[in-house]
Amino acid sequence: MTRFPYDQFAKDYLKELLQPLGTVETSRKVPAEITEIDVYFVPTSQPTIDKIELGLLGRLADKTALFEPYRNAVKISEIRSCMKKVFYLISEIEREDKRDNIATAEDQLPKVWILTPTASKAILNSFNAIPDEENWGKGVYFLGESAKTAIVVIHQLPRIPETLWLRLLGKGNVQKQAINELQELSPENPLRGKAIDAVLSLRSILEITQNQNQDIDEEDRELVMALSPIYLQQLENAKQEGVQQTARAVIENLLQVRFGSDDELNSIIEPISRLSPQEFTPLLLQLSREELLSRFRQK
């Protein structure tokens, strides 16, 4: 996959999931050099969801943070680039605090979370990145406290519900397994819909690229196939929703033509719409207003 489609997917995906917890800015410019922060997050004092619903991702968003997702294994130069970004922001905060005669709170300074599918032991050791499995579980590595940098190795994360939202940013079988788990979530889960919209947007970009006879790798073709059942289900849902809306419009029009419009009649549109057109049409044409209200008024 070219870097752009995945980058855009990761930014949009993280923005949608993190917005209920605070302010999210993607592609934030860093004036010190021509570069961007992929996702810049600032928590709010009044989140619209409990961060526990985001599992491990919610824990990463406990404080102001930078998120730098990578499609392929992160390189040494890329880790250094991420560190430069967070150090620039920290310098900016320190300058503002000094100007306002405020002591900078070290524990409130932003941290950069580097999200990578895999990372070699050699690279992790070269940065003295140390795991903290007791507090964070497997797959989360921290540089020294003052480095304000941590590396999340997605393919090392345990396959548990708490890591699902991060494993969706993985590759290959890890991502496909996470997609299957996403499908199995309750439709009432507010995060499920946001995640599905993001991965289907990625699928559309890959499919367009493929249809234009541009090269996409085998892994991306497999991802398109893995997302196809969700895509077809979404199409069917949209179709059914369209049918339901049409039925409601027909019922409303028939009621208005026969009896006019009032709150009592409006209250029975919903229960009538649960019937098929073959069932509700003769009833609406034959029954009186009182008979319809008696039959469909919800107790």
Give an account of the 3D structure:
- With 299 residues, this protein is an alpha/beta fold.
- 55% of the residues lie in helices and 12% in strands.
- The chain has helices spanning 3-18, 55-60, 76-99, 121-126, 133-136, 164-167, 172-184, 190-211, 218-259, 263-266, 269-273, 277-286, 289-296; strands at residues 22-29, 36-43, 65-69, 111-116, 130-131, 140-142, 149-153.
- It has a 7-stranded mixed beta sheet, sandwiched between helices.
- α7 runs parallel beside α9 (218-259), α8 packs across α9 and α9 runs parallel beside α12.
- The chain is elongated, with a radius of gyration of 26 Å.
Explain the layout of strands and helices.
Elements: H1 3-18, E1 22-29, E2 36-43, H2 55-60, E3 65-69, H3 76-99, E4 111-116, H4 121-126, E5 130-131, H5 133-136, E6 140-142, E7 149-153, H6 164-167, H7 172-184, H8 190-211, H9 218-259, H10 263-266, H11 269-273, H12 277-286, H13 289-296
Parallel strand pairs: 3-4, 4-7
Antiparallel strand pairs: 1-2, 2-3, 5-6, 6-7
